[in-house]
Amino acid sequence: MTREEFNIFCGGMKGTTHVVQWGNSDVWKVGGKLFALCGWYEGGPAFTFKVGEIAFEVLGDAPGIRPAPYLASRGMKWLQVYDVEPLGTGELEGHLTASYDMIVAGLTKKARAELGV
Fold first, then answer.
1. What one-character DSSP code corresponds to residue 28?
2. CATH code for 3-112?
3. What is the DSSP string of 47-90?
4. Are 107 and 33 in contact (CB under 8 A)?
5. CA distance 17 to 32
6. In whole angstroms, what is the distance from residue 61 CA to residue 29 CA?
7. End-to-end Cα, the chain, rounded Å
8. Residue 42, number of CB atoms within 10 A of its CB
9. Residue 84 CB: number of other CB atoms within 10 A?
10. Strand partners of residue 48
11. Residue 117 per-residue DSSP state
């Protein structure tokens, strides 16, 4: 997945907003809450997203994946994929969608209604 493909995919999710921050990272939010970002790792794109407890434990040491810098160091369950090859684009998209769903589920009923999600 390229950075452009990442932005197209995240932009296709309902109620999302995009900002560029944190050293030229593409940051995607829903309801004002972060669900995915794309920054750089050793010159290539690195994709960061929220995961559940089990995915964090299982994938955290997989090749091309690591606990997300800053977020995971504060006890949050976020991973960063810096080499998509072991996962594949389809599985990465699945994790991005799951991250989005987790964030949406944490929004208030009112916020979800306002976003149409």
1. E
2. 3.90.1150.30
3. EEEE--HHHHHHHTTSTTEEEPTTTGGGT--EEEES--TTT-HH
4. yes
5. 8
6. 26
7. 26
8. 7
9. 20
10. 37, 80
11. -
Q: Tokens in use for 32?
A: 């004002």
Question: 27 and 71 in contact (C-beta within 8 Å)?
Answer: no
Could you tell me which of 51, 64, 39 has the C-alpha nearest to residue 97? Answer: 51
Query: So where are the chain's domains?
Result: 3-112
Dihedral (Cα; 96, 101, 106, 108), 10-degree rounding: 130
Structure tokens at 14: 């309902």
* Residue 3 DSSP one-character state: H
Whole-structure pTM value? 0.91
Q: pLDDT tens across 29-80, in order?
A: 999 999 999 998 877 899 999 999 999 998 988 899 999 988 877 778 999 9
Q: Within 10 Å of residue 108's Cβ, how many Cβ atoms? A: 9
Contact 83, 63 (CB under 8 A): yes
Judge contact between 30 and 16, C-beta under 8 A. Answer: yes
CA distance 31 to 114: 9
Q: Which two tokens stand for residue 77?
A: 């369950």
